[in-house]
Amino acid sequence: MEARLAELLKLLDLERLEDNLFRGQSRDIGAPQVFGGQVLGQALVAASRTVDGRLVHSLHAYFLRRGDVNAPIIFEVDRSRDGGSFTSRRVVAIQHGQQILTMSASFQNVEQGLDHQAPMPESEPPEDLRDIGELNAAIADRVPERLQCFFRHQRPFDIRPVDPPDYLNPVKREPQRRVWFRAVAPLPDDQPLHRCLLAYVSDYHLLETSTLPHGVSFLQLQMASIDHAIWFHRDLRVDDWLLYVLDSPSASGARGFGRGLVYTREGVLVASVAQEGLIRQHSRWTSPAGQQK
Q1: Is-catalytic flag, 88?
Q2: Given 157, 176, 240, 268, which residue has the most CB atoms within 10 angstroms?
Q3: Which among 26, 202, 217, 275 is annotated as catalytic?
Q4: Which residues, 6 or more positions from 220, have their beta carbon under 8 angstroms from its beta carbon?
């Protein structure tokens, strides 16, 4: 398997310490803290390993503190309820004796019922677009030094934005984005794994969409996820192309709110995502022109 993806799968393969206690490691992606999607994906893995025969259909999480890349993360699972059709779990992620994330997740037996969905918007195919890693690498030597590792980081997903923002010369635009993504190599036929990987990658781009109407880029801002929710509607594969359709209906109070719909290439809606995060002007960041903001 491709090395980047193999490393991610290793991160998600948590060490079981007790029936309801797990330990995970972190991957440095060039950011000053653990990537939120990593902790979210690991928390879902921990919850899933205490559930038999049911698939996660929703999760709701709060990011409480920055994660330390150099320290292990302990995941404690509370088996809240095992009902006739639904199972509820609560997970607390702990580092240095403090909670860094809490998550509630609900699992359900597979059932048939009413079925409808919002249609997928039209979009250029991923083959006509460039990977974000290639786009970022082209400008890595022009961003603040502290972010150069992040811009050169090679992700375990091929991510291709339809209309990528210009981080060096941002302009005001509608708070809407479309982004294709898929894992960089084939994965096992394991639906719980694919849903955990979707949780990981869903943390990309949501908060950034909230900045688009303001003509600024994250180079000039302090940004951090506050909470994150996912509803899984149908089975999915993250090693096939998925289209992430994003919008931001509001930003206020130093917070931005983003929504996302995840479609298969065939137009099947497989998941919905919502996130609110901190967006604050940060005097220590340097603008693209090299002047202090």
Answers
A1: no
A2: 157
A3: 275
A4: 281, 282, 285, 287, 293
The whole-angstrom separation of Cα 148 and Cα 111 is 47
Whole-number Å distance between alpha carbons of 202 and 211: 17
**pLDDT (tens digit per residue) in 111-135:** 999 999 999 999 999 999 998 888 7
Architecture of domain 3-108+124-281: Beta Barrel (2.40)
Q: Is the pTM of this model over 0.70?
A: yes
Mean pLDDT of the chain: 91
Q: Which of 203, 217, 239, 272 is catalytic?
A: 203
* Among candidate residues 153, 275, 133, 136, the one with its CA nearest the CA of residue 202: 275
pLDDT 10s digits, 166-211: 888 888 999 999 999 999 999 999 999 999 999 999 999 999 999 9
| Beta bridge partner(s), residue 259 | 247, 274
> Catalytic: which of 210, 225, 248, 272?
225
Say what the pLDDT of residue 1 is.
Answer: 66
**Annotated catalytic, 220?**
no
Question: In terms of pLDDT, which residue wins out, 150 or 261?
Answer: 261
CA atoms within 13 A on the CB side of 117: 16
Kindly report each contact of residues 9-16 with a partner whose C-beta sits within 8 Å and lies 24 or more positions away, as own/partner.
9/193, 11/38, 11/42, 12/41, 12/42, 12/45, 12/193, 12/196, 12/197, 12/200, 13/45, 14/42, 14/45, 14/46, 14/49, 14/75, 16/49
Mean pLDDT of 274-287: 74
Task: Specify the residue for token string 């340097």.
Answer: 286
Does 289 or 136 have the greater pLDDT score?
Answer: 136
Q: How far apart are CA 217 and CA 154, in angstroms?
A: 21
